[in-house]
From TrEMBL:
<dbReference type="GO" id="GO:0046872">
    <property type="term" value="F:metal ion binding"/>
</dbReference>
<keyword id="KW-0479">Metal-binding</keyword>
<dbReference type="InterPro" id="IPR008949">
    <property type="entry name" value="Isoprenoid_synthase_dom_sf"/>
</dbReference>
<dbReference type="GO" id="GO:0106350">
    <property type="term" value="F:all-trans-octaprenyl-diphosphate synthase activity"/>
</dbReference>
<dbReference type="GO" id="GO:0008299">
    <property type="term" value="P:isoprenoid biosynthetic process"/>
</dbReference>
<dbReference type="InterPro" id="IPR000092">
    <property type="entry name" value="Polyprenyl_synt"/>
</dbReference>
<keyword id="KW-0460">Magnesium</keyword>
<dbReference type="InterPro" id="IPR033749">
    <property type="entry name" value="Polyprenyl_synt_CS"/>
</dbReference>
<comment type="function">
    <text>Supplies octaprenyl diphosphate, the precursor for the side chain of the isoprenoid quinones ubiquinone and menaquinone.</text>
</comment>
<comment type="similarity">
    <text>Belongs to the FPP/GGPP synthase family.</text>
</comment>
<keyword id="KW-0808">Transferase</keyword>
<dbReference type="Pfam" id="PF00348">
    <property type="entry name" value="polyprenyl_synt"/>
</dbReference>
<protein>
    <recommendedName>
        <fullName>Octaprenyl diphosphate synthase</fullName>
        <ecNumber>2.5.1.90</ecNumber>
    </recommendedName>
</protein>
Length: 322
């Protein structure tokens, strides 16, 4: 079951967001439109825009601006995917060729820029300076998070704290903005707005922890990307950081060498170390703690089916296969 199917009340709004996205990908340059449609329609869960809808509804919003706002969040997310795949030289996402694998790096970067600018065009139409402030700040932090991840790449001395700073910036910040801006539209209390902001932050961290964990657990078919991609790119994610901490000296040196060099020559030995040292369970436990914090933050909101769905999404985030 897809997340939006958890709540029948939200499904018509979710479909309206999909229609809005498709209707706002138009461009006088055919390649822009072609790549935009390709990446937007490539099978994502639309989890971030769903948070906008659920947050707004949980706060009693009665207007229609949550539809374009949800589309804005998806445009920004899609732009980051286009740029990420270029930076990471990725060839597979959601089980399909990446845009850069199909059309090349330059068009992918430029269409990512187009989607960023289209998001801000729609934001102007909504007319909320506070929404614009939160999203502009979030976009800036996301860019910083991506640069920080690039600096940590192939650095085996990356600490758990530095890793958490990366995923807070590059992933959790957009979750946070999505949930919080739904509350802003509803003109909610500071308490409700903070509750949704914290929910989004902790959910985003949990989501990324599980995403990084699956690189050492799943098949390519389950993940929709190549197994071992993070190791191949020399990314020191939490499973590797913890495995180095818990492993013996030989194991630690092998992982350090693999992070520095990148590639998949030693994928199987690294997988064995990650499992043997308990790094899988360590990362799972960290993700569950974040999901629990997300659910706890929702206690400040009034009871509703929308709050219940937000709680269910937090549980799904840590119990998924892709």
């Amino acid at each position: 079951m897809q997340p939006h199917q958890l709540n029948p009340e939200i499904e018509p709004q979710f479909e309206a967001v999909n229609d809005y996205i498709i209707n706002h990908l138009g461009s006088t340059v055919p390649l822009v439109e072609k790549i935009g449609h390709y990446i937007v329609e490539s099978g994502g869960k639309r989890l971030r825009p769903l948070l906008v809808l659920l947050g707004a509804n949980a706060c009693g919003y009665q207007g229609q601006h949550h539809i374009p706002l949800a589309a804005i969040i998806e445009f920004i997310h899609t732009a980051t995917l286009l740029h990420d795949d270029v930076v990471d030289n990725s060839e597979l996402r959601r089980g399909k060729d990446t845009a850069n694998a199909r059309w090349g790096n330059a068009p992918s970067v430029l269409v990512g820029d187009f989607l960023y600018s289209r998001a801000f065009q729609v934001m102007v139409e909504i007319g909320s300076m506070e929404v614009m402030r939160v999203i502009a700040d979030a976009t800036n932090v996301i860019a910083e998070g991506e640069v920080l991840q690039l600096l940590n790449c192939k650095n085996p001395d990356t600490s758990e704290e530095a890793y958490m700073q990366v995923i807070l910036g590059k992933t959790a910040t957009l979750f946070e903005a999505a949930a919080e801006t739904g509350a802003i539209l509803a003109d909610s209390s500071a308490q409700a707005r903070e509750a949704l902001r914290l929910y989004g932050r902790h959910l985003g961290i949990a989501f990324q922890l599980v995403d990084d964990l699956m690189d050492y657990l799943s098949s390519a078919e389950e993940m929709g990307k190549n197994v071992g991609d993070d190791l191949a790119e020399g990314k020191p994610t939490l499973p590797l950081i913890q495995a180095m901490k818990a492993g013996n000296e030989d194991e630690r040196q092998l992982i350090r060498q693999c992070i520095r060099a990148g590639g998949l020559d030693d994928l199987q030995p690294v997988l064995d170390i990650v499992h043997r040292t308990g790094a899988i369970d360590y990362t799972k436990a960290a993700a569950q703690r974040e999901a629990d914090r997300a659910v706890a933050a929702l206690e400040a909101l009034p009871a509703s089916s929308f709050r219940d769905t937000l709680e269910q999404i937090a549980e799904l985030a840590v119990n998924r296969s892709r």
